[in-house]
Amino acid sequence: MTWSILARDPATGTLGVAVATRFFAVGALCPHVEGRVAALSTQALMNPMYAIEGMAMLRQGRPASEVAAVLTAADPGREVRQLHILDAAGRIAQHTGTGCVAWAGSVVGRDCSVAGNMLAGPEVVEATARAYEQAAAEGVEMAERLLRALEAGEAAGGDSRGKQSAALKVASKDPYADLDIRVDDHAEPIAELRRLHRRSKARYAIYRRFLAGPGHPGTYDRAVIIAAVEAEGTPDDDVPGS
Q: Considering its fold, how many domains does the chain have in total?
């Protein structure tokens, strides 16, 4: 019911995940990312515990392949599940059960993993990976890479049933995301996701830089934060497409 991309920037360690589907609120259960740990997506007849238990193992430094093997071996429903993982070291694991609805499968690209099921065909995951690789070669930010990848997958046919929801998450140094946006129910979810990304740059992306993280309290001088937003931000009404 879904296709998704997991990605890692080897220069910065930034991790990201983006997903689109003809299913309500895909961002609630499928995509997961944690800075310095991993990106993961659980799909098809998803098992949310793959993320809960899998991320706990990945925090211990266990490789993606081992984590995927442990999760699927313990799950009697594994043949109707799809799972892929990209860990902080760049290791990738993919699982597509034999009971997933065609077309179902995955590809590994340069610093990315793409997996999907109920798709128009293998060209969806292939186009998604190629678009990501091209965007990465151009040096654009992670969120933009992921958006271009989803757009290419949709242009190649996307979910065979149509469109409904999409989500995108990016994380770098912190256990919580740098950016976490989702579209739960929309006629053009990927286009709406792009609009939200533009909107995030108006104020949110600047404010996010000042938040606390492991080992530091962040910047809590409100005047410093406001000055940065005023200097760098864009009024919401001026954001194209908002």
A: 2
Residues 236, 116 share a domain: no
Q: How many helices (H) and strands (E) does the chain have?
A: 7, 10
Is the pTM of the predicted complex or chain greater than 0.70?
yes
- Cis geometry, peptide bond prior to residue 103 (ω within 30 degrees of 0): yes
Verify that 235 and 177 share a domain, yes or no: no
Q: 189, 147, 139, 195: which is closest to 168 by C-alpha? A: 147
- Which pLDDT score is estimated for 242? 35
Residue 2 · residue 23 · CB < 8 Å: yes
Domain that holds residue 208: 201-242
Nearest to 27 by CA among 202, 186, 212: 186
Q: What angle do CA 165, 10, 109 make, to 5 degrees?
A: 55
Same domain, 105 and 216: no
Distance CA 222, CA 231 (A): 14
153-167: pLDDT as tens digits:
999 999 999 999 999
- Give the residues across from 168 on adjacent strands: 18, 181
